[in-house]
Amino acid sequence: MRKYNYSDAFDKYFKLGTSSNQRDTTAVRKTVSGLVKILYPNGEFTKDEIERILVYALEGRRRVKEQLKKIGGMEFYAVNFSYIDNETFEEKFVSVPEQGSDKLIPDGIQKDGTVHTVGRSESGVFGVYRIENQSISGNGKITKSGLNSKEGKESVEVAINYFKANKQHISSLINLSITDYMLDIRDLQGVGQCKDLSVATLIAMASSSLRKPTLPKLAIIGSMTTGGTISKVEELANTLQVAHDAGATRILLPANAMSNLADVPSDLFTKFQVIFYSNPEDAIFKALAIE
Question: How far is CA 181 from CA 5, 25, 116, 163, 177, in A?
């Protein structure tokens, strides 16, 4: 079968999406050709049959790009492969089951006290984290679970201390003396503890205290000091790509990150509704859509 070539087998029915570069296209077409030779050596197949092969080929190529992205960063950021039906013009995106990225930040409004953030882990890999905070009647006790690193614990303490010292600037409805807080931090991708959870933790505590959820599909980016100074975001492009892969459509971003926007590919940046904040209180109000 070496003299036969079925690399254009899907062109009659489908075309590849814009995220596929020349190398991706070549790899997908070679995989399609090889599978057609094995499964349909006579070159006869239906639209559904070639679609199944195309999806398999795109999955395989995405796995390669996911690994390259971890090694080489933004050079390989375009991993959201898709194909378009030539008849209906419907675009279908191909994910890989082990990523589970389309479910990390779910659709709809989340329970108050639940926030999602993207940050660098202790191993240096960027990951997605969910913080869930419950506020119940009590006497000011704060319990924490899911923290297993020194830096992660310190960043949560920064948020707690800031919340205690500045609660009156957030809302007069917050009364720590009659409220207990239960914080749970989850590493959604198993990459290790996030190094800084301060801004996300602060918003989670305010959200549960005020019984007000964050905006849907929101990823919170940034870190802060105990005094409220907002730190610069490291590797903004990689951070946004991870947020996009996780399903975020809104990004809460420090205003000082504007100087790094030139490093972000325009087709990635335009996928988000970007909301800038200048200080911790501003981050809370914008995340919770408080006027």
Answer: 63, 51, 18, 12, 11
**What residues have CB less than 8 Å from 152, skipping those under 6 apart?**
122, 185, 193, 194, 195, 196, 197
Strands 14-16 and 218-220: unpaired
Sheet holding 250-254: strands in order across? Answer: 142-145, 179-187, 126-137, 114-120, 218-220, 250-254, 273-277
pLDDT, tens digit, 9 for 90 and up, residues 35-71 = 999 999 999 999 999 999 999 999 999 989 878 766 6
Please tell me the chain's helix, strand, coil percentages from 3-state DSSP, rounded to the nearest 5: 40, 20, 40
Structure tokens, 244: 């996009």
Residue count of the chain:
291
Q: Which residues pair with 195 in a beta bridge?
A: none
How far, in Å, CA of 218 to CA of 253, rounded?
Answer: 11
pTM attached to this predicted model: 0.70
pLDDT digits (tens, 9 = 90+) for 139-185: 989 999 999 889 999 999 999 999 999 999 999 999 999 999 999 99
> How many angstroms separate the first and last alpha carbons of the chain?
67
User: What angle is formed at CA 90 by the lines to CA 87 and CA 91, rounded to 5 degrees?
Assistant: 130
Helix/strand/coil (H/E/C) assignment for every residue in 7-25: CCCCCCCEEECCCCCHHHH
Any idea what the Cα angle at residue 128 is, between residues 186 and 197, rounded to 5°? 65
Residue 122's contacts (CB-CB under 8 Å, 6 or more residues apart) are 149, 151, 152, 192, 193, 195
Contact predicate 127/194, CB 8 Å: yes
CB-hemisphere CA count at 13 Å for 21? 8
The token pair at 21 is: 């570069």
